[in-house]
Amino acid sequence: MRPIRHRSALFMPASNARALEKARDLPCDIVILDLEDAVAPERKVAARTAALAATADGGFGDRGCVIRVNATGTATGKDDLTAVVGNVVDAVLLPKVDGVADLIDARALLGPTIPLWAMIETAKGIVALPDIARAAGKLGLKALVAGTNDLALDLRCRVDDHRTALLPHLAAIVAAARAGGMMALDGVLNAIEDEDRLVRDCLQGRDWGFDGKTLIHPSQIAAANATFGPDATEIAWAERVVAIFAEPAHANRGAVRMDGAMVERLHLAEAERILALAGPR
Predict the structure, then answer these.
(1) 29 and 9 in contact (C-beta within 8 Å)?
(2) pLDDT tier at 88, thresholds 50, 70, 90
(3) What is residue 157's DSSP assignment?
(4) Which pLDDT tens digit goes with each residue over 18-74?
């Protein structure tokens, strides 16, 4: 996958031509062209055609472009995967991944090159997270996406404004992503007019280790970008860490003193990640 930021990943129904055109000018980091939940059964084929046409027609500029296909166990999902082959997309998002077998089936249909993302939104998917993490490298799995709506339904749990019942499972998704060298994206918030809850969700997701948040409405982009992007203090710290390790005297040092504290090579790696996320300055 080409280097892109991942603070905000906006689901857009591929069956909505106006939405796809609008997405070309939105400030989200990633556009997810949805062929699954947001598309009525009778419009699935047309949505697939529209999504592939959008990727061929210049894509979405600097934004990442991901296609969410239908489940691999369905005929529509299999047709989606084979249709994507040869098209320019940054990843294919698989819904309702219950285990490694779903990833293997998808990879067989998709071929070896296009990265996979997996939505973890079932009880089986949560239980299979350790196996999924171990298989990630071999299968080209690059991201785990929390499917909080479906997960809550499958678990039959009641989700309050602080997502208390889901927190253990969100932590498990983040841990599996880190173990498998993957990105982790938090789930969507359906309450698109509740700005306070959106900010709270974003802060919670960031603090629990997610790299960004999936969204369902353009009005949610600004909060996600602001929360999951580094602030001025973090950027300044990162720039100083990179600069101090770049000094010739520190070229072979594992740790150096900065502002009365020791910073190590692991801090350098984190500083480089922060600056990459901040983008051009």
Answers:
(1) yes
(2) confident
(3) P
(4) 988 899 899 999 999 999 988 989 999 999 999 999 888 767 888 999 999 999 999
Helices (H) then strands (E): counts for the chain: 12, 10
The 10s digit of each residue's pLDDT in 177-205 is 999 999 999 999 999 999 999 999 999 99
The H or E element that residue 137 is part of is: helix 129-139
Closest CA to 125 of 150, 105, 90: 150
pLDDT of residue 277: 80
| Token pair of 92 as six digits | 């294919």
Cβ-count burial 110-138 (b if 16+ within 10 Å, e if not): beeebbbbbbbbbeebbebbeebbebbee
Q: Is the dihedral of CA 189, 192, 198, 202 positive or negative?
A: positive
Question: For residues 241 and 255, is the Cβ–Cβ distance under 8 A?
Answer: no
CB atoms within 10 A of CB 215: 28
- Secondary structure element (H or E) that encloses residue 165, with its range: none
Residues 241/271, Cβ–Cβ less than 8 Å = yes
- Provide the β-strand partners of residue 261: 258
Torsion of CA 18, 22, 23, 27, to 10 degrees: -160
